[in-house]
Amino acid sequence: RAHTLTVLFILTCALGYVTLLEETPQDTAYNTKRGIVASILVFLCFGVTQAKDGPFSRPHPAYWRFWLCVSVVYELFLIFILFQTVQDGRQFMKYIDPHLGVPLPERDYGGNCLIYDPGNETDPFHNIWDKLDGFVPAHFFGWYLKTLMIRDWWMCMIISVMFEFLEYSLEHQLPNFSECWWDHWIMDVILCNGLGIYCGMKTLSWLSLKTYKWQGLWNIPTYKGKMKRIVFQFTPYSWVKFEWKPASSLRRWLAVCGIIFVFLLAELNTFYLKFVLWMPPEHYLVLLRLVFFVNVGGVAMREIYDFMDDPKFHKKLGQQAWLVAAITATEFLIVVKYDPHTLTLSLPFYITQCWILGIILVLTWTAWRFFIRDITLRYKEIRRQKQEHRYEKDKCLSNGDGHSPILDEQTGNKLRERKL
């Protein structure tokens, strides 16, 4: 890394040289933005060369070190926004894009939910075509990439379905959540999310069956082989199949529940941040945030799985996992500070009842699976051991023919327990 430090030194000198050569504009806002961008570039260059490597090495460890440093920069930006007043924070977004900082127009996202509208003779299926916008492929590719991160069919489906229930529950707070029933369950869960999860699982199957035997680029004789090797540079160096096994222990069950909770909170933050910071859904900052989470989320999930699967070797949770958790929490704090009125709008009574019932069922199953069931099994095992001990003792005290009333009774009890 001595060469990379040399590059960092040259970059710093070049930035200083350019600053000295050009005439500094008499624009405080412009100079401030330029200074902040230059500072971030120097920090990113330092982090790419000196940060700790993560669990991934393809396409290059420096790529993942870059996203780790971007996580630090983004977290610092969120902390800065958190400590501003609501008005100043929204107007600060104008320094990023002059079109921001203005209230969003009111929009009706629910509308007419008829699949076939007989009142519209020219196009009775216009409600379906209106929903087929750019967010449909975004949903598909988003869940395809989430499946590559989570690597489990059931966890992906649970998160997908749970988020639709959250949209139902919170549509009185955000109009963005108000959708037709067929938009929720047919277009989102079955078509977009389901197809993305299916394609993601097929890709995971191919990656798990692929032979990972790497050869140097210059040792490959043919040009076709060299091109194939270059393409495979963007695939994993090796493959680890995630087996979460949430019901195997209380620790893993709580960890999986925590992962699902953080995923759902990060999804909700996407919509609430747009609402409180006055960002249109199609703004490029929203897309950049999703690209950011795709890159850092994969590393965080691998670090979490390694920590859960082998805690003796991975004694501490990875740095990227901690940063993702901190970023998600900070985004939520910004939402709470900037618009507490929206978040405190009370849930409808029937929705509150459904959530209370669901929480009670989850807690009841947790208590039965990891406490009551284990106590019952332990009691049966102790009882069986005692009966076997008595059986051996009676066998030693039996008469010459090898039979005794107590022995016959113990044998009968043992046979009945086996049948049960």
UniProtKB/TrEMBL annotation:
The keyword Disulfide bond does not apply. InterPro entries: PSS. One of its GO terms (cellular component) is endoplasmic reticulum membrane. Keywords: Endoplasmic reticulum, Lipid biosynthesis, Lipid metabolism, Membrane, Phospholipid biosynthesis, Phospholipid metabolism, Signal, Transferase, Transmembrane, Transmembrane helix. Residues 394-420 are annotated as: Disordered. Its main location: endoplasmic reticulum. Residues 1-20 form the signal peptide. Coiled coil: none annotated. Its EC number is 2.7.8.29. It is found in: Endoplasmic reticulum membrane. Pathway: Phospholipid metabolism; phosphatidylserine biosynthesis; Lipid metabolism. It is a multi-pass membrane protein. It catalyses: 1-octadecanoyl-2-(9Z-octadecenoyl)-sn-glycero-3-phosphoethanolamine + L-serine = 1-octadecanoyl-2-(9Z-octadecenoyl)-sn-glycero-3-phospho-L-serine + ethanolamine; 1-octadecanoyl-2-(5Z,8Z,11Z,14Z)-eicosatetraenoyl-sn-glycero-3-phosphoethanolamine + L-serine = 1-octadecanoyl-2-(5Z,8Z,11Z,14Z)-eicosatetraenoyl-sn-glycero-3-phosphoserine + ethanolamine; 1-(1Z-octadecenyl)-2-(5Z,8Z,11Z,14Z- eicosatetraenoyl)-sn-glycero-3-phosphoethanolamine + L-serine = 1-(1Z-octadecenyl)-2-(5Z,8Z,11Z,14Z-eicosatetraenoyl)-sn-glycero-3-phospho-L-serine + ethanolamine; 1-octadecanoyl-2-(4Z,7Z,10Z,13Z,16Z,19Z-docosahexaenoyl)-sn-glycero-3-phosphoethanolamine + L-serine = 1-octadecanoyl-2-(4Z,7Z,10Z,13Z,16Z,19Z-docosahexaenoyl)-sn-glycero-3-phosphoserine + ethanolamine. The chain crosses the membrane at residues 62-83, 153-170, 182-201, 253-272, 284-301, 321-338, 350-371. One of its GO terms (biological process) is phosphatidylserine biosynthetic process. GO terms for molecular function: L-serine-phosphatidylethanolamine phosphatidyltransferase activity. Belongs to the phosphatidyl serine synthase family. Catalyzes a base-exchange reaction in which the polar head group of phosphatidylethanolamine (PE) is replaced by L-serine. This is Phosphatidylserine synthase. It comes from Ceuthmochares aereus.
